[in-house]
Amino acid sequence: MGGRVGEPRSLSPPPITSQILWGPAGVPVNAGAGPHFDVLEVGHEDYVALIEADTAFWVLAPRPQALDMLLGPELPQAYLKKEARLAADLNQVRFGLLPSAVYFNPTERCNLDCSYCYLPRPARRRGRDMEPDRLLAALGLLADYFGRTLPKGARPQLVFHGSEPLLAREAVFQGMEKYAGRFRFGVQTNATLLDKEAIDFLVGQGAGIGISLDGATAEVADRTRRTWGGKGVFTQTVRTLEELADYPGLNVITTVTRENVAALADLVEFLHRHGVTNALLNPVRGTQPGGRALMPDQGGLARYFFQALDRAYELEQLSGRKLIIGNFANLLLGLVAPGARRLMCDISPCGGGRCFFAVGARGEVAPCSEFLGLPQFHGGNLFDQPLPDLLKTSPFIQVTSRVVEQLDPCKRCAVRHFCGAPCPAEVYAINGHLNAPAPYCDFYAAQAQYAFKVIAQGRLDNYLWDGWREGLEEIR
Prior knowledge:
Blueprint: E1 5-6, E2 19-21, E3 36-41, E4 47-52, E5 57-62, H1 63-71, H2 74-95, E6 101-104, H3 121-126, H4 132-149, E7 157-160, H5 169-178, E8 184-189, H6 196-205, E9 208-212, H7 218-221, H8 234-244, E10 250-256, H9 264-273, E11 278-283, H10 289-293, H11 298-319, E12 324-325, H12 326-336, E13 356-359, E14 364-366, E15 380-381, H13 387-390, H14 394-400, H15 424-431, H16 441-456, E16 473-474
Parallel strand pairs: 6-7, 6-13, 7-8, 8-9, 9-10, 10-11, 11-12
Antiparallel strand pairs: 1-16, 2-3, 3-4, 4-5, 13-14, 14-15
């Protein structure tokens, strides 16, 4: 199996054991005249991956034939026939997309004091809300912008994000009602304010609902997610989860920390038992000190994360019902269909500032929500400057021009375009600059190896959403 499926819509490094340079006729030469293939161990007894990293092209080669494939003319000749299309396909995903989504924080406040939050604690405790009239005005500015930049009839995605957006519930619901035909709305919430009236409204609007849950038991989940008074919210969150279990727009987001990493497989089993079909297991970002203090060891993170993926597969085999782990599924899509990926964190440049951006409660605009707590990366204010000008300011350019080809050791890594060296906000917070690899570098490399193993096992469809191939075109 090799290559990848093209997508017509605009939408420490792993071990390298061999690198061969090929001339135009497929003859090995000591010059950069042809493709450079890296050999990647993927943990499968029958296969290794051969990767042309510049275009993210790959082949799973049977171990006994891998050397012959590298030394024979067929592989480089087959690759060279596809090279231009592969390069154009990857270039479009990396540099050719338009912004089509907004993360909108209607308030700085939160009713919880989660220890790893990416937003500063003083703002979450005593921050500002965006008044309804001002929120409606902001949505109007955004709708006008997207109406000029996106194809006619396209509806950009707008996610009311946090802190806790339902603390500004009146403004949020007014905005959703007025602009229902202009945006695809979602709400990311801690679930504590999702009463029946709120659920009925959001479901009636067809909005996506993301709720946060970090463990299968109160003992685990409440270690990092508590009220300002120190009380856990596990029971209340699960009650809401049970009410929404059959809603197709439900998504559960888990922030993986050293406090819950060892219990990820238990959480997968818990979510599957409760009917959840989509979840994210996101390693905590080190953008704020609380998050940095809770970052798990990379070796343990990889081990427990893969145990959770294995458990999701086992449960699907037993029940016939999938629980898709979205961040891993996105990596798989990045391997087989780069343009079909749904998330833009694991590619370089990341999606911040080029595929999406964030708006804060004061109207500040940043490349992504992770940057809202870093004022030096605010491009300006939505109410003071035209949005196209904001997206061209220095903070945005710094993020959108950060590419793995300029980073060490990323520029030598075989899986650099399946990782993307994220997250720039986290990288900046830890290093004081953007020109550094991801703090989870070893984990991302291991995750790519695991993804190749899944493909070698013939399990690709088991880890992806049903219908993921629709609308795709194979590059031949």
